[in-house]
Design a protein that fits this description.
With about 220 residues, the protein is an alpha/beta fold. It has 8 helices and 7 strands; from the N terminus they run H-H-E-H-E-H-E-H-E-H-E-H-E-H-E. Helix 5 (about 100-105) runs parallel beside helix 6. The longest helix is centred in the last third of the chain and has 14 residues, at about 160-170. The structure holds S-adenosylmethionine.
Length: about 220
């Protein structure tokens, strides 16, 4: 997938961004989020945050919630960190890495209230489909890191991939489909890709899943 490069002059120097970046220890140890944020506020994660618009609006609107983002493209991580630093938003931390590796290695079980995944790359070509974020392991990891009652929110403008995402969630996890959130009425809440999809007249598909409060015995495939 081609990316618009973000010019260097759109980023603050790395020293000013460091407080917003969460380093990955080697060897991996589980994150201690209470120590990282200095509080035990509810925690939400966005996977593949791109330019960071959703995290920025969320962190501004809900200062009593802690936000995490994982993004594989370093240029986006630094750009989003710059946006956070300019507003001195201390309830967000960004992780540079592949969510498929970072989540299993660093995220404790049942640590999150919500996981957001908006417009994951569809990787159209058949030989590239293995690069897709939504695979069996990823959906099972989403289930593992959600607290009972926690939610996974997804959106895509690619109907075929959206179908695959829902199929994986239904067949590989105990997460239960629930009412999807309404589309944001305030355009500031639209992610960059959602804005583009709507401008170009593409339909946006949304779904929400909830982790059952009590463990279920039903087996998954
Ligand atoms: C199509 S963009 C959507 C960005 C943003 N969510 C939006 O709606 O504007 C998909 C994003 O996911 C990131 N991404 C793709 N695979 C990833 C992975 N395995 N781990 C973390 N980020 C990933 C990409 O770099 C890109 O920024």
């Amino acid at each position: 997938m081609s990316r618009t490069l973000i010019p260097r002059d759109k980023r603050l120097p790395l020293e000013q961004l460091t407080p917003y970046l969460l380093p990955l220890s080697d060897p991996p140890t589980a994150f201690d989020f209470a120590a990282i944020f200095g509080n035990t506020n509810p925690l939400e994660l966005e996977v593949g945050f791109g330019k960071g618009g959703f995290l920025l609006q969320s962190a501004l609107s809900y200062p009593e919630v802690n936000y995490l983002g994982i993004e594989i493209e370093k240029a986006y991580v630094l750009y989003a960190a710059t946006r956070l630093a300019k507003r001195n938003l201390r309830n967000v931390r960004l992780i540079h890495g592949d969510a498929r590796r970072v989540i299993p290695a660093y995220f404790p079980e049942a640590c999150l209230r919500t996981v957001h995944v908006y417009f994951p790359d569809p990787w159209w070509k058949r030989r590239h489909k293995k690069r897709r974020l939504f695979q069996e392991d990823f959906v099972r990891q989403c289930e593992r890191i959600l607290q009972p009652g926690g939610k996974l929110l997804i959106a895509s403008d690619v109907e075929e991939y959206f179908g695959v995402m829902n199929e994986l969630l239904c067949n590989q996890t105990h997460l239960q489909a629930t009412d999807a959130p309404l589309p944001p009425s305030d355009p500031r809440w639209l992610t960059n890709f959602e804005r583009k999809a709507l401008q170009e007249g593409r339909k946006v598909f949304r779904a929400a899943y909830v982790k059952p409060l009590a463990p279920t015995n039903a087996s998954v495939a």
